[in-house]
Amino acid sequence: MDKDERSAYSYLRTTKKFPNIWCSGCGIGIVMGALIRAIDRMGLDKNKIALVSGIGCSGRMPVYMDFNTMHTTHGRALAFATGLKLAKPELKVVVIMGDGDALAIGGNHFIHAARRNIDLTAIVINNQIYGMTGGQYSPTTPLEMRATTAPYGHVEPPFPICELAIAAGATYVARSTVYHAVELDKFIEHAIQKVGFSLVEAVSYCHTTFGRLNKIGSAVEMMHQLKEMSISLSAAEKLTPEERSLKIIRGVLHNIDKPDYSSLYDKVIERAKASVTGKEYMRAGPGGLE
Amino acid sequence: MAVTLMQGNEAVGWGALAAGCRFYAGYPITPSSEIAEMLSRELPKYGGKFIQMEDEIASLAACIGASVGGVKSMTATSGPGFSLMQEHIGYAAMTEVPCVIVSVQRLGPSTGQPTSPSQGDVMQARWGTHGDHPIIVLYPNSVPKAFGLTVTAFNLAEKYRTPVILLMDEVIAHMRERFEMPPFESLTVIDRMGTNVPPEWYKPYGDTIGDVPPMPSFGSGYRYHITGLFHDVMGYPTQRLDEINPLVERMQRKINNHLEDILLFEEEETDDANTVIIAYGVTSRSARHAMRLARNHRHNIGLLTLYTIWPFPEEAVMRIGRSARRVIVPEMNLGQLALEVERAVGKHKVVRVNRADGEMISPQMILQAIEGR
Questions:
Q1: Cα dist from B179 to A203, A285, B42, B142, whole Å
Q2: Quick one: residue A196, left, alpha or beta (phi over 0 = left, psi -120 to 50 = alpha)?
Q3: Cβ <8 Å between B69 and A16
Q4: Exposed site from A257, B90, B312, B370, fewest CB < 10 Å?
């Protein structure tokens, strides 16, 4: 491919009506850029990539990109992706979700997709709030923060997304922020290459709701805050647990090798085919068994 | 092939395999679990895949995902699980992704009576998901029909790019009946229409002759977008009325213009009948027995057995309403399809026979209605 063909533009849908639906200054576009750069770097065939998303601001990402794209229902993207991956194992299936999407309504699907170790790449864009519906608190909204449904401050502790995925059985788990776009490119690339359930948490922000309600400021101020609050994994190891709890820890938190669901199920198919007896063949009818 | 005693649930599993189903995702629930058990055993022998998901919502999602990948897919459940599946029945209808959903009904509402028969999901099968949507619902009344209608369900799903629901009675699901399974190769199996236009010309939701656009699978070189939002011919979200209305109309048209192909029913002795029983599922078998008993007593009784309940076979029922003085509608619910029959033939002509306590409607109950007792 020449350079022009490999530009980000060639991955966008030229027939789609632009501009996109996101507020100007939103971090989702940075994640989209990181995904495109990661795919470009790997030189993958567009026909062999499927993007599956749920509902919310992040759910709108696939439609802008020229792959096999599917915008599903709220929280269920991983369940759709599971079926798609099992039907078409040669596809690289990337699932794009938001924090409310993946961890509230989709929490059950999230842990089970990780437990089964389906060969999927999950990207959770964590802006700590429900942006599209106007700023209600999500499962990752920090304690004491304001949301339109927490006008007196939030009383629930947030879900640690990466730790949840590790405990549930994911093979690759990494976290970065939309400030650290280059690092995000790299983690998404690793995650797509990894066989098994991989997760990249892309910490973002919502200046339109969260920033306004909590008087943090504009997108620029929130971007600065991401930079100040985040710390690399190696630097975090020098901190006390209390100090660490206040930071966004960036890095590859988990990376192990184990057989994915499809490779194990292929053995089931082998065993089942070996067990076919003459009698069962008759029951299936002539030509019934492939 | 040999004659066997086969259970309705098992017959559904074989029907799915015969129709080319190679993916099943489900969640255990009485009285449908034998379908999952049977397919977990048989599907891998055919190179297919079985997966037990975390709930029924995920089960139908996985089926839709597999179908988008080009593999014929099915799930099976019962009332409580069927309630959970409504979200994705709507998604499949809106995105026009073929799939088959089996609901082996149990007495409801709620957890109800898991092992007792009921025909209580008739209206839920039609209107359980929100919004106006086309749907096809088939209803077997025997083990051989369970096999045959499962094949038909797949064929209609593929042909019209729609979810098809197979509603079953617990009695049919668990009853063992004589069945001689036909050789798979003797069956008519319809696969979805692909396309050979250059990828840049392909419109996944375009206006097509017959109103069903071709559907290449993901990964085949046709890259397109699928969304549950209202979409234009390219599948991209739209709020334009001139794009929403054609979609609404085409989705209805693709079913309503093919009713001759979709509506399945059987008439028995309706020519001279002044009273016709309209029934479906296992209740139609009580009705047939009641008809025989009544004919012995020189009552001119006919029977219309419905195998397609949605879309409702309005023309056939209206025709019966014109010739018959009286229409009896026995149902194991408090009167669901009777509402449609009343709409078609007039309320004054309809006699309902109902029970919703987990017991079957006996021929005697119908006979009493015939005799006006």
A1: 59, 14, 19, 10
A2: left
A3: no
A4: A257
CB atoms within 10 A of CB A153: 12
Task: Tell me if A203 sits within 8 A of A230, measured CB to CB.
Answer: yes
Question: Is the predicted pLDDT of residue A156 greater than 80, yes or no?
Answer: yes
> Structural domain of residue A282, as residue ranges?
259-290
- Written as six digits, the tokens of A240 are 């006390």
Q: What would the mean pLDDT of B13-36 be, rounded to a whole number?
A: 98
Residue type, B62: A
Question: Residue A3 falls within a domain, yes or no?
Answer: no
Task: Give A19's pLDDT tier (boundaries 50, 70, 90).
Answer: confident
Q: Cβ contact (<8 Å) for A284 and B184? A: yes
Whole-number pLDDT of residue A3: 52
Count the domains in chain A: 2
Q: Which site among B49, B97, B243 would you substitute to test the A interface, given the most A Cβ atoms closer than 10 Å to its Cβ? A: B49
| Whole-number Å distance between alpha carbons of B320 and B366 | 18
Task: Point out the residue among A13, A82, A112 whose CB comes nearest to the CB of B65.
Answer: A82
- Would B192 be classed as within a structural domain? no
- On the question of pLDDT at A279 being above 60, the answer is no
The residue from B215, B235, B260 where one domain ends is B260
Record: contact B51-A82, CB cut-off 8 A: yes
Residues 215-234 of B with CB under 8 A from A: 217-221, 223-229, 234
Provide the β-strand partners of residue B331: B354
Contact B172, B142 (CB under 8 A): yes
Tokens 């890259």, located at residue: B223
Predicted confidence band at A80 (pLDDT cuts at 50, 70, 90)? Answer: very high
Identify the CATH number of the domain in which residue A29 sits. Answer: 3.40.50.970
Model pLDDT, residue B146: 98
Complex confidence, ipTM: 0.97
Q: Are residues A129 and A142 in the same domain?
A: yes
If asked whether residues B17 and B132 sit together in one domain, one would say yes
Q: What are phi and psi of B174, to 5 degrees?
A: -100, -10
Q: Which of A66, A85, A265 sits opposite B223 (nearest CB)?
A: A66
What single string gives the DSSP state of each residue in B96-140? T--EEEEEEE-B-STT-BTTS---TTHHHHHHSSSS----EEE--
Q: Which two tokens stand for residue A108?
A: 């059950």
Pair B141, B283 in one domain: no
Q: How many CB atoms lie within 10 A of CB B265?
A: 15
Shared-domain flag, residues A160 and A273: no
CB A276 within 8 A of CB A289: yes
B172 lies in the same domain as B207 = no
My answer on whether A140 and A279 are in the same domain is no
List the structure tokens of A7: 């530009």
Q: Nearest to residue B340, comparing CAs of B365, B310, B303?
A: B310
Q: Which chain B residues contact residue A91 at CB under 8 A?
A: 69, 218-219
Give me the domain span that covers residue B219: 199-260
Which candidate, B91, B211, B212, places its Cα nearest to that of B163? Answer: B91
Q: Is B191 within the bounds of a domain? A: no
Q: Which residue has the tokens 């999952």?
A: B36
Instruction: Say if CB B95 and CB B150 are below 8 A apart.
Output: no
Q: How far apart are alpha carbons A26 and A219 in whole angstroms?
A: 7
Q: Is the peptide bond before B198 cis (omega within 30 degrees of 0)?
A: no
Number of domains in chain B: 3
Inter-chain touch B1–A50, beta carbons under 8 Å = no
Q: Sorting pLDDT into bands at 50, 70 and 90, what band is A275? A: confident
Indicate if the pLDDT at residue A1 is higher than 50. Answer: no
* CB < 8 Å to A84, chain B: 65-66, 68-69, 218
